[in-house]
Amino acid sequence: MVTGAPAKMLDRRDELTPMLAQYVDLAEEYDDAVLLFRVGDFYKAFCETADEVARVCELTRIEREDSTGTYTACGIPVDNAAKYLDRLLEAEFRLAVADQVEDPEETNGLVDRAVTQVITPGTVVDDELLAAGSNTYVACVTRGGTGNAAEVGARGGYQDAGEVRGDAEPHPEPEYGLAHVDVSTGECAATAGSLAEVREELARIAPAELLTGPSVGAADEVDAAEGVDTDDEVDATALADGAMVTDYDPAVFEPDAASDRLDAYADPGRFDPAAATAAGALLAYAEWAQGDDGPLGHVNRVRRYDPRRSLRIDATALRGLELFETHAGGGATLFDTLDETRSALGRRRLRAWLRRPLLDRERVEARHDAVAAFADHTLVREEVRDLLGEAYDLERLVGRVTRGRADARDLRSLHATLEAVPEIRDALAEAPELDSLRDSLDPLADLRERIDDAVVEDPPTDVTDGGLIRDGFDADLDDVRGTAREGREWVANLESSERERTGIDNLEVGYNRVHGYYIEVTNGRLDAVPDDYTRRQTLKNSERFYTPELKRREDEILGAEERADRLEYELFTDVRAEVAAEAERIQGLADAIARVDALSALATAAVERNYARPELGADGVFVEGGRHPVVERTEPEFVPNDADLPTGTVALVTGPNMSGKSTYMRQVALCVVLAQAGSFVPAQSARLPVVDRVFTRVGASDDIAGGESTFMREMRELTDILHDATGDSLVVLDEVGRGTATTDGRAIARAAVEFLHDELEATALFATHYHDLTELAGERERVRNLHFAATREGGDVTFLHRAKPGAAAASYGVEVAELAGVPDAVVDRARALVDGEDGGVGADATGADGTGADAAGDAGGDPAQRTLDELGPGTDRPREELTDAERETLAALRATDVADTTPIEALNRLNDLQRLLEADD
Ligand code: ADP
Ligand code: MG
Predict the structure, then answer these.
(1) 553 and 509 in one domain?
(2) Using a 6 Å cutoff on CB, does residue 655 contact ligand 1?
(3) How far is the CA of 658 from the centre of ligand 2 (A)?
(4) pLDDT, tens digit, for every residue of 607-642?
(5) Strands (E), 628-762
(6) Better-scored residue on pLDDT, 914 or 366
(7) Beta partners for 728?
(8) Separation of 693 CA from ligand 1 center, angstroms?
(9) Residue 499 lies in a domain
């Protein structure tokens, strides 16, 4: 065990030195954390813990010996701790920092120590340990609350939520509570919902740490093998999706206890019971991690929200659209592409907007108005952006101020930000459209003046050593400082007056930290020393003396300086407390600055990348000259494409590999997401609806992430989509059904399209290699075909990357194979087979209605696949002699992966195939 008290020390507990006994007590109390024990200038760890800390931090170990034995120890230097703590957190340790809580100089025996802070990946507050411009959340999931679900439904759930409008129905039986907090900024919010909703919301929050209630178990308590949640237990590890899972004291999850805790921050009655429990338990944990000093002063608001009141982007879509992470890990995300913010405040805000686009058209359009104004007023935009570079991270600063951790430099940084505010306001005044934004910037002039009056311009980081407070700020301080100054002046004059009085012309007055002030006389002149000199120190060539008056002055000076330092510290903490008392106003200003930064950044992106303001409220997705915002930046000849999708249209997108299908579908989805986030869109013009959810599913063959059986996952995600999509949703399905045998895959794809069209009436883009699906355009009213064409000259294929109406005639699989370097003989043979069967492959569409699209034949959806099939053994027999059922049977057999088929599945499949053949007879 790396954490907890070392066995070696426990064995001789009664003999340990008092200090090590203290260590053992604390290590036992914080037994799931690495205890870092302050000794002098180091945070020490002992025994096994020392081994681990030394390994992770690459520190040397020493052997520490006392009367009870030898113990391995290692130490992290306190002054330079951040980088080591960071490594320990990276290695997923919780850290309990035990500091000295009394002044070592004021005790004779053992200094009292206590754990002042528990640092976990989700509760970090140190700027040095946090990424700038993003949030670090710890989230909490609980199951159930005090009340029953029916009661909540009757209360109307979220209907009185002030800041959101809309007419969502009362919440159907919320069962799970979910809360999250960023302990560094104080942002805190809670919600409740079904397990699926909570899961989706968690993916959006992406917490660094997940706290789970007693009824949300650890993985080994549930049916982990299947990764499926049973009715009674939820697999916390699966839910956490990579975040550290923390079990905390079950007592804080007791609904009454949780509600009491929440009461210190917000009225628990406003929350769904499950949400209140989650929030209360989470805040209890956050308080504990901060040293259990009572409520967190900077958590001034616990926001109650309903995730269904914003555009929902589920975890799959977040990944598929690469909003914040790319599949491959490298390359630019949408956020990177859009991020022109200048401050950490703005960066966090833009991230939040993109994570949670809006549903309320008015609010979206208000953002568009502001972006337009910033885009039009170039000078205003540039000036504001320059000034925003001065904006300090006020959210985290408020956290430090209220925790009493801010130093004098922090206050000066706050002052510098406050000085920029009137200038930002002045700049905004040039754009009348931005009046309300300007009014939201409260310059906090009183606070600014107060800080400036009190704190010197360039203060030291240490707040106990003086030099912080300006002259003239406090009469007492000025007095004490005056005394010290007078004393020092008297000493400064002493040399010349004593030389005169004694006639010793080389006499010197000096100061030494150990002995204080002295008068130094060389050995040759000792005979001239007057009677009132007392010897203080003997040196080789001289003697040092003091006089009663010098001693008196010395005491006076040192006493005054000490008093001044103490007074300065007191005055500083008073000013800091005054600032803390204004936490809410500072947070309000931080909020306004964040908006200004995010909006002007969106305008900058819009101007620099030529985005257009979208028009909302359209009955469909209509885009002219749309581009993929990320791909267009690396593809010098990006070809813009239109989209023309009246609401309820299902567009079937066909075309060869690499022709641009996926890029096109994603750019349409991104257009919608960007617009509802408040951004302009990468297009010449766009008329868009307000959609409630964006779904994407990228087929297994395109999904590099892998993991569980990709086909199983694909089907599970398809299930979610078909359950949850509505007529207001935008659905993007990319090559769904590819992960299984052709027959099944084609059937699933077709059934999914029919369901999307007939039942859900959702607007959808559906890329498929199952060519015969394109027939649906002739059969279903709102199904359309789109295809990506290529031209062929000689044997070469050039992709046009241009969307055209109608279905593609062929997949150009052979040419792609050739481009990829498949040997000539194989390519030639394949081409002969394709030509032989189809009588030549046309290069372009065969008609907008999709009829005649089946030129690629009927042996299986994917011509490229089919070509390979035909290269397999036993294909000599002319294909024409086979019935459809026979071909399908063969295709299914070939597609079967024997290694991955259980005996039962094999029997079932054989049975199915026999029936298929029988039906054919
Ligand atoms: P598909 O899904 O049809 O296989 P992709 O959408 O993945 O094709 O596109 C393949 C590549 O073609 C992309 O990586 C991109 O570099 C390029 N591409 C796609 N669309 C365009 C476009 N409109 N203009 C220029 N290049 C494009
Ligand atoms: Mg693709």
Answers:
(1) yes
(2) yes
(3) 7
(4) 999 999 999 999 999 999 999 999 999 998 999 999
(5) 641-646, 650-654, 685-688, 693-698, 730-734
(6) 366
(7) none
(8) 25
(9) yes
Cβ–ligand 1 distance for 663 under 6 Å, the answer: yes
Task: Output the residue whose Cα is nearest ligand 1's atom 19.
Answer: 660
Q: Is the pTM value of this prediction over 0.85?
A: no
Q: Quick one: 416 and 362 in the same domain?
A: yes
Cα–Cα distances in angstroms (integers) from residue 381 to residues 475, 602, 680, 830, in the given order: 45, 11, 16, 59
- Regarding the beta carbon of 3 and ligand 1, being less than 6 Å apart is answered no
**Distance between Cα 626 and ligand 1 center (Å):** 14
Among all ligands shown, which has an atom nearest to the Cα of 627? 1
Domain range enclosing 96: 7-119
Q: Which residues of 762-780 are buried (b: 16+ CB within 10 A; e: fewer)?
A: bbbbbbbbbbbbbbbbeee
Question: Atom 17 (ligand 1): residue with closest C-alpha?
Answer: 660
Ligand 1 site, residue 801, Cβ cutoff 6 A: yes
Residue 861 is assigned to a structural domain of this protein: no
What pLDDT, on a 0 to 100 scale, did the predictor assign at position 342? 96
**Does the residue 713 lie in any domain?**
yes
- Classify residue 144: in a domain, yes or no: yes
CB of 600 shorter than 6 A to ligand 1: no
Return the beta strands (E) in 309-376 as ranges.
312-313
How far CA 252 is from CA of 140, 283, 287, 297, in Å, comes to 12, 9, 12, 20
Q: Are 119 and 81 in contact (CB under 8 A)?
A: no
pLDDT at 815 over 70: no
- CATH number of the domain within which 96 lies: 3.40.1170.10
Residue 221 has a pLDDT of 41
DSSP secondary structure of 455-499: B-SS--S-SSSS--BPTTS-HHHHHHHHHHHHHHHHHHHHHHHHH
- CATH number for the domain that contains residue 670: 3.40.50.300
- CA neighbours closer than 13 Å in the CB half-sphere of residue 308: 21
For residue 242, report the distance from its CA to the centre of ligand 2, in Å: 28
What distance in angstroms lies between residue 789's CA and the mean position of ligand 1's atoms? Answer: 12
631 Cβ closer than 6 Å to some ligand 1 atom: yes
Count up the domains in the chain and report the number.
5
Element (H, E) at 718: helix 710-724
How far does CA 168 lie from the centroid of its chain? 28
* Residue 629 CA, ligand 1 centroid: distance in Å: 13
**Residue 380 · residue 119 · CB < 8 Å:** no
Pairing of strands 615-616, 685-688: parallel
